[in-house]
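ok trying this again, last paste got cut off
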Amino acid sequence: MIKKILVSQPQPAAGKNPYFDIAQKFGVEVVFRSMIKVEGLTGKEFRQERINLADYTAIIFTSRTAVDHYFRLCEESRVQVPDTMRYVCTSEQIAHYLQKYIVYRKRKIAFGTTGKLSDPQFIAAVTKIKKEKFLMPVSDVNKEDSSQLESTGIDLTKAVMFRTLTNDFTPDEPFDYDILLFFSPSGIKSLKKNFPDFDQEVNGKYIGTFGPTTAKAVEEAGLRLDFSAPTPENPSMTSALEKFLEERMKEDAPGK
């Protein structure tokens, strides 16, 4: 029987959250506990890359974390981001997040629909302004396939602006979860680092992932993937989780 679920993300801000609705609906406990932590490069570390932020006329963002660290390093480097800067984001959510730093104007901001660098709408948006000089902030463990993006012939520079570290469990911290939800390959790496002898079959745990690279990381780690998102039927992690819980409840029902 499923009683406790680990969502390997930071605790969300207070307010309505679909995970809390799921917890109430199925009578389970949902715990938010990030398996990784992000640390920004210092200005001194970034200067070692010999990248002049003022040289670029367009920015590609693949995450809100990338947005935060780009504007942080611009501030630390005393680089004034011009009003003429063009932005292309891999999702609408990231595009809207830009409002934290700039005045949102549709003519300057474009975005894809799937969150992937290979998304046709995203590629079309980049191609439309391909004469610009592009900068893409990434992490030190970035492995996302950018071959389709680079095949457009744009002038693109990837700049490492933050690093991903494992957020280790303490010796007395319980790991008594029935379902583990992961959102990046780094989360799988953290699981193996914290629990090198982790045996999914023996421990009886289910694993759910978001995104194709995370699903692939589960397979490469020799683990079993029980459900994933996004899919046409389940565009979000919460919808995939809810469907999985409903199926498990049917299987665990008396008489089965």
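PB: full thing came through this time. The first helix runs from residue 18 to 26.
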